[in-house]
User: Fold this.
Amino acid sequence: MMQCDALVVGGGPAGSTCARALTQAGWNVAVLDRARFPRDKVCAGWVTPGVFTLLDLDPADYRAAGLIIQDITGFRTSVMGQRAIETRYPGVVSYAIRRCEFDAYLLRRSGARVVDGTPLASLVRRDGTWIANDAISAPVVVGAGGHFCPVARQLRGGADTARPVVAKEAEFRLEANGSDVTGEMPELFFCRDLEGYGWCVRKGDYLNIGLGRRDHGDLNPHLDDFIPFLERRGLARRASLVRWHGHAYLARGTGPRPLIGDGVLVAGDAAGLAYPESGEGIKPAVESGRLAAETLIAGGGRVQRDDLRPYEAALRSRYPAAARTPDALAGAARSIGRLLLRSRAFTRHVLINRWFLRQPA
Ligand SMILES: Cc1cc2nc3c(=O)[nH]c(=O)nc-3n(C[C@H](O)[C@H](O)[C@H](O)COP(=O)(O)OP(=O)(O)OC[C@H]3O[C@@H](n4cnc5c(N)ncnc54)[C@H](O)[C@@H]3O)c2cc1C
Assistant:
C-alpha cells in the first residue's frame, strides 16, 4: 500500500497546482491520473496573464523550456457570418499554450509522485483514511479529475442536474498556407442565438479550432455549419479533414456541485468553476488548486468537513454562482446582444476587457 499525506485525483492544472503547493510545504503527495502524460486535453489553450502569476511561473521561463507560448495582443470578434471587429492592445493581454505541453510541464514541476495511466477505480473511507484502488492510502483526497471527476461524482451522490457547455475542438499542425489566422489575434465567432461561440487560436505552427455551446443537444448541426465556414474564409482550409474531439464543462461558478466533504475537497472543473461569459477554466482550476492546498496546510492535518469550510467560503466568494437570464427575457437579450456585438466600444470595454480579460471596470 502506498501511503501519502494527500492523494490528488487528476493531474490537470487544478491537480498539479494543488500538488505542488502541498509538496512545497513538505507534504507527501501522490497524483493519480487515468491518462498517461503528456496527454491532450480538449481546450483552446488560451490563458490570461493571471494564470502565470498564480502559478509563480514567468512566461519567459516557460518559453525558454522550449514550449510553445503564443503572445496575444488582440481579438477579432463577430457574430458568425457578420463583419468582424478588431480589438487591439499595445502589449500582450493573453497567451496561447498547447495543453499537452502545459499540463505535462506543470505536473512534472509539482514534485509529487505521479501515478499516471491509472484510473481511479475505487475509493473507500476506513477509520478516517481513504483507500484508492486498494493501493494508495491518504487521510485527504483532492478531486481534480475534471468535468467527469469520479471523486466529485462520489461526493455528490445523485445525478448531476447542472447543464454544461458542450464543445468540440481540433488542434493540428498547419501546413503551409493552412490558415489566415495570425497568432497575435485569435478569432471568436458568436452563434447567432448567442448560446455559444466558435474560435480559431493559432499557436506557432499549430491551429486550434472549436465550437462550444450551452447543451441543447444541437452542437453537431452548428458544427456542420461552422466547419465549411472556416474553410470558405481561409481560417482553417482543411477543417473538415482533421479529427475533432468533444468534451464538456460547467460554467456556472460555484453552486451546482459540492466543494467539500469529510476528508475531501473538489477543485477545478470537478467543482464547475469556469467563468460563464468566456468559458475560461484554467485560471479557476489553478486558483482553486492553490486554495485547496492553502486550506489543507492551514488546517495542519485536520480534514473534517468543518475544517475545510474556509476553502468553500473562499471559492464561493471568488466564483459566485452565475445568474441566469429569465426565459421570458431571453429573446430580447439575444437581439440586444447581437446589436451590442457590432459596437466597437461594447466589444472592447465589456466583452473583451471585462468578460474575457476580467480587467477591473
Ligand atoms: C473545448 C474546450 C475549450 C476550452 N478552452 C479553454 C481555454 O481556451 N482557456 C481556458 O482557460 N479554459 C478552457 N477550457 C476549460 C479548461 O479546459 C478547463 O477548465 C481546465 O482544463 C480545468 O482543469 P482541471 O485541472 O480542473 O481539469 P482537467 O484539465 O480536465 O484535468 C483533469 C484530469 O483528471 C484526469 N481524470 C479524469 N477522470 C479520471 C479518473 N477516473 N481517474 C483518474 N484521473 C482522472 C484526466 O485524465 C485529466 O488529466 C476549455 C474547455 C473545453 C471543453
Summary: Residues 85 and 344 are 7 Å apart (CA to CA). The chain has ten helices and 20 strands. The chain has a mean pLDDT of 93.
